[in-house]
Amino acid sequence: MKRIRKAVFPVAGLGTRFLPATKAVPKEMLPVVDRPLIQYAVDEAFEAGIEQLIFVNGRNKSSIEDYFDLAFEVEQTLSSRGKSLAALEGTRPKPGSIVSVRQQEPLGLGHAVWCARDIVGDEPFAVLLADDLMVGQPGCLKQMVEAYEKVGGNIICAQEVRDDQAHMYGVITPGARDGALTEVKGLVEKPAPGTAPSNLAVIGRYILQPEVMRILEGQGKGAGGEIQLTDAMASMIGNQPFHGLTFAGTRYDCGDKAGFIHANMALAAAREDIGATIREIGKQVFAV
């Protein structure tokens, strides 16, 4: 069984739900407290043993690559003033560990993943969507890698959602269950209300075998007129082991304004340095 060494980060989206902020700032660079969304996903990947990060980028998103580079002026100024550089830890991965490719057209998540095919090569790989901020110990991807090492094949992150929310997600048709692992018998992308095969939704973390790239190569457009990763995964079911792992932790949907604010409030309130102040502010703001 090959180890999971590479992770794909689709970061080419326009972030239209956060306009006008995302007119100039990539959605993945919006801060949750004092760190951008992409940093949380990258930290999660490194915790899981990922060695190479593949950013599938778009036009006008160079700030994501710049963020993970040397900030000479900032570092020099801090050092000359005798200040700690600890706040910058994690923003400068090992040289050569980040690769960027361009998705020229917004043709969907499946297309974005396919754009990384030549770098992924013939290896299983992870996909992380920075919109989904996953908080847990260990992190979500590490939990998935541990499951992969037991059952192999393909692993997708699953979360139970309300029946009236299932139409917003890719949904698992479940088979046998073993603790947090659920055998995946089928996948349906954004089923019509009331038709979902379960309330187990697919969340933005995946471990996939390289064969998915060959499927995406010739796949047509699906739901929303986009090339859907869910459709490609569905065609692999039955040919390879396929499981959903229910994440033991908390997910914040930071692709949604309310979810983004929720993440900021929750993570700020949990901080040792500002938590007490934030909780007191919360009492004042939400006093009835």
Automatic annotation (TrEMBL):
Catalytic class of the enzyme: transferase
Protein source organism: Sphingomonas sanxanigenens DSM 19645 = NX02
Enzyme Commission no: 2.7.7.9
SUPFAM superfamilies in the cross-refs: Nucleotide-diphospho-sugar transferases
GO MF entries: UTP:glucose-1-phosphate uridylyltransferase activity
The keyword Transcription regulation belongs to this UniProt entry's keyword annotation: no
Name of the protein in its database record: UTP--glucose-1-phosphate uridylyltransferase
Top-level taxon of the source organism: Bacteria
Family note: Belongs to the UDPGP type 2 family.
Reactions it catalyzes: alpha-D-glucose 1-phosphate + UTP + H(+) = UDP-alpha-D-glucose + diphosphate
Keyword Transferase tagged: yes
InterPro entries given in the database record: GalU_uridylyltTrfase_bac/arc, NTP_transferase_dom, Nucleotide-diphossugar_trans
Ranges for domain Nucleotidyl transferase: 11-268
Alphabetically ordered keywords of this record: Nucleotidyltransferase, Transferase
GO BP annotations, alphabetical order: UDP-alpha-D-glucose metabolic process
Database matches in PANTHER family: UTP--GLUCOSE-1-PHOSPHATE URIDYLYLTRANSFERASE
